[in-house]
């Protein structure tokens, strides 16, 4: 079992620094290089708190018994270079890609969103491309034009001809809502962002938000006042803790507060928890919180965060496997859905079945 001291030794910092980074301590002064190293090392070593060490977890996709040689490939991230650390979930996706590529003995070239148009020659020089996250139609066209083989990770394009691997976020949203409802919650709020790609011009466009609205309508409890959204979920700035903090404050300003707040990712949940605590509210006594992704820090919060585990590393690994299949001659498209798993912790009441 990995300890904080072992992570600290591997990175070359103190155990206290590791603890504070994993707890998102805003007062800690540490370089982004060190912060990244700590998060990646904790992910790589599958670190868990003593409370969660005995929990069954979704494991990574097993490596093939026989190695296959694979030429150089590229990853294209929907975030800008300086935004990669905003959401540790995407670090997990990248780690899955990198580990799988080690199995195949291949080199990875990294391209970020801001550099995409300038890197056409780079994409043409590699054998295949894995695009991480949502990309706009003109970006997809550029990727297709300059890639011999193209796979999307954590995104399902409208065009069915592309290979892709993702999780069913609409189904995951309903699972959380069903659990919260079974636990006795009725005024369920949502904090997230609009989706300017998949449902252009439509209100409540992001998949989780759309599923939330539909579920609320089916249960006769839809109230627009319980939704707080930022402009675009595909903008890295809208993944920050500050999004949850500011939007939670706006929800608290209403005369009738929610019973529980569901957020689109764990970063937003952390900001939400901070706003609730600053307002003198207890979690989950006054207002509960639930979220998505299950990033490493989720289990370290006080109280630990209930969150839907989306297996980012498995998504990354599967994307590499799909790319290898294409390189080896598969001619038809594959759409792979990786199951999610709800991890109920102490930030909300558990449904009776848990």
Q: Mean of residue pLDDT?
A: 86
Helix fraction bin:
25-40%
Order of helices and strands: HHHEHEHEHEEHEHEHEHEEHEE
Our measurement of the CA-to-CA distance between the termini, rounded to an integer number of angstroms, reads 26 Å
Low-confidence stretches: 50-68
DSSP E strands, number = 12
Descriptive labels:
354 residues, 6-stranded parallel β-sheet, 36% helix
Structure description:
The protein is of the alpha/beta class and 354 residues long. It is built from eleven helices and twelve strands. Helix 1 (4-11) packs across helix 2. It is globular and about 60 Å long. The model is unreliable at 50-68 (pLDDT under 50).
Summarize the structure.
By secondary structure, this protein is an alpha/beta fold. The protein has helices at 4-11, 15-22, 32-44, 88-104, 120-125, 137-146, 169-182, 207-218, 241-252, 266-278, 312-327, and strands spanning 73-77, 108-111, 128-132, 150-153, 163-166, 188-193, 227-230, 260-263, 288-293, 306-309, 335-337, 341-343.
Give the topology, please.
Elements: H1 4-11, H2 15-22, H3 32-44, E1 73-77, H4 88-104, E2 108-111, H5 120-125, E3 128-132, H6 137-146, E4 150-153, E5 163-166, H7 169-182, E6 188-193, H8 207-218, E7 227-230, H9 241-252, E8 260-263, H10 266-278, E9 288-293, E10 306-309, H11 312-327, E11 335-337, E12 341-343
Parallel strand pairs: 1-2, 1-3, 3-4, 4-5, 5-11, 6-7, 6-8, 8-9, 9-10
Antiparallel strand pairs: 10-12
Helix pairs in contact: 1-2, 1-3, 3-4, 4-11, 7-8, 9-10
